[in-house]
Task: inverse folding
């Protein structure tokens, strides 16, 4: 076992909560890789007003989601609006510091990583209980991971299952020690253990079917519990009484400050803004630039954090129509004016995509080819035999250069961004047809590869997201066959815990994804949350999702 870094998880004593002083064992390379380029990019947002005074306990936070959560199960969560809810009911083995990128203690007070990165042993905190009163122990951890790789699988829990690729099983060493073994090196797993998708739930929940786990009966050890879950309507969370095993990243110890969080679904941006300004809501998702004046006029503000991971982009099905031609896929990249997308639709809190990773992601490198150059796009298409035809749309051998992009409204700006992209592509002779579908239809059709292309982003504060997004043996939404050089890069980055070596491999993989036309980047996602003046200490965690543990309401 490797023991290469040690620090104490002591925090300031703010009450009667016991603070463990056991050493925490880390693999330096893994942690350093996570920290690179994360600090200062997607950090926590301290929203306290200067004159708000000390934190106050109590009160109900009223939050307006821009879309309905897809499921109450953290393991099956994929959209930001879903994760905003599910993150609050489960703790994870570890947490990731949004300021430094380091992995820090949560349910596990220490851990050891095998020298080959194939085994991970976690020492659990003593005294943690699930909300039904049962103790959290090594068996519960094992049951969680067994269920994700078994009953749920990649079809129901694609992100969680991808983090456990090569999972051979979990061994209960003793009641508070569990070892996770993989068939091959899996350096990304330590960071993955901090994600909500691998949050730990009770064995009673793990034993349920995938469908039953979506009904709001999930039993976690987190600072909040489900009080009511109405699919497509509302969610109410209640404070967990007696909670005192929070993450080392949290700003205080003991229980959460808020008594309740009431989530309602408000799809219309104008309605969300109006509800916030009129004191019907305390915070809202997806506050757009045009909403800012109204929000600020009543003393509110917009809080932002850049998402790490894969930026928004078009992922082509390389087996369908014109997108089978690599030259077409390559030409789409310089045909898109990303700065115009940001300036016209999103505003200054958003960034253009400059790579196949977002700039807040560990291991990110800027790619020179992700540059607006319409003449280059035209030249590439000319050379490939796509000539201007009727209505200015190019043709080749009787086939129009036309394809559909499937998308859903998981982000309020998606339609406007794609409509402007449609205009930009038409200027070089490409007919992009927009296909708006529901979240459930998008998921189903992604599973069967029934689309010309699909538009989305994926958030994670680790460069391994390239593997989960583009590996031939993963989701493979490109429906591609083997690409030996790329496949080797995606696998090799799992084998090294040295920061420089891993980042070098990730840099190569980013270029290879682009060179093979597997991703057409557009913009980087930022979380933009509208907040009332009374809302204090609403924080973004390392992957730019909301954490409500430290949040409180002033002026009660």
Result:
């Amino acid at each position: 076992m490797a023991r290469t870094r040690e620090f104490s998880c002591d925090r300031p004593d703010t009450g009667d909560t016991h603070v463990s002083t056991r050493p925490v064992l880390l693999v330096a390379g893994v942690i350093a890789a996570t920290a690179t380029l994360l600090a200062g990019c997607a950090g926590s947002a301290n929203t306290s007003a200067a004159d708000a005074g000390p934190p106050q306990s109590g009160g109900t936070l009223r939050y307006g989601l821009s879309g309905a959560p897809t499921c109450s199960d953290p393991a099956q969560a994929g959209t930001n609006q879903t994760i905003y809810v599910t993150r609050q009911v489960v703790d994870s083995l570890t947490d990731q510091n949004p300021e430094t990128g380091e992995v820090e203690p949560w349910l596990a007070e220490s851990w050891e990583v095998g020298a080959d990165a194939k085994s991970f042993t976690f020492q659990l905190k003593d005294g943690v209980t699930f909300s039904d009163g049962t103790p959290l122990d090594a068996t519960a951890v094992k049951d969680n991971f067994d269920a994700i790789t078994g009953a749920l699988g990649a079809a129901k829990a694609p992100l969680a299952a991808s983090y456990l690729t090569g999972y051979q099983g979990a061994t209960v060493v003793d009641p508070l020690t569990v070892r996770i073994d993989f068939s091959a090196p899996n350096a990304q797993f330590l960071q993955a253990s901090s994600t909500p998708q691998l949050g730990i739930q009770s064995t009673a929940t793990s034993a349920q079917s995938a469908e039953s786990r979506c009904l709001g009966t999930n039993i976690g050890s987190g600072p909040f519990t489900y009080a009511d879950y109405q699919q497509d309507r509302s969610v109410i969370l209640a404070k967990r009484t007696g909670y005192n095993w929070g993450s080392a990243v949290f700003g205080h110890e003991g229980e959460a400050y808020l008594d309740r969080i009431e989530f309602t679904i408000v799809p219309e941006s104008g309605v969300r803004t109006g509800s916030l300004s009129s004191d019907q809501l305390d915070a809202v998702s997806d506050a757009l630039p045009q909403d800012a004046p109204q929000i600020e006029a009543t003393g509110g503000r917009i809080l932002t954090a850049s998402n790490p991971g894969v930026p928004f982009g078009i992922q082509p099905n390389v087996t369908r129509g014109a997108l089978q031609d690599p030259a077409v896929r390559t030409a789409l990249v310089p045909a898109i004016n990303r700065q115009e997308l940001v300036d016209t639709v999103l505003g200054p809190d958003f960034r253009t995509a400059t790579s196949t990773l977002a700039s807040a992601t560990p291991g990110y490198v800027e790619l020179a080819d992700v540059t607006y150059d319409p003449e280059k796009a035209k030249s590439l298409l000319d050379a490939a035999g796509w000539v201007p035809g009727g209505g200015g749309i190019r043709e080749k051998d009787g086939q129009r250069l036309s394809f559909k992009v499937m998308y859903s409204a998981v982000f309020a700006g998606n339609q406007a961004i794609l409509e402007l992209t449609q205009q930009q592509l038409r200027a070089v002779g490409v007919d992009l047809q927009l296909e708006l579908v529901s979240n459930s239809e998008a998921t189903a059709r992604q599973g069967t590869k029934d689309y010309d292309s699909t538009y989305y982003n994926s958030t994670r504060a680790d460069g391994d997201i390239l593997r989960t997004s583009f590996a031939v043996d993963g989701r493979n939404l490109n429906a591609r066959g083997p690409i030996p050089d790329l496949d080797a890069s995606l696998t090799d980055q799992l084998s090294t815990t040295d920061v420089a070596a891993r980042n070098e491999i990730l840099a190569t993989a980013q270029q290879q994804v682009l060179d093979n036309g597997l991703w057409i980047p557009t913009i980087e996602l930022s979380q933009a949350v509208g907040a009332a003046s009374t809302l204090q200490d609403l924080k973004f965690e390392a992957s730019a999702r909301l954490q409500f543990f430290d949040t409180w309401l002033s002026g009660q």
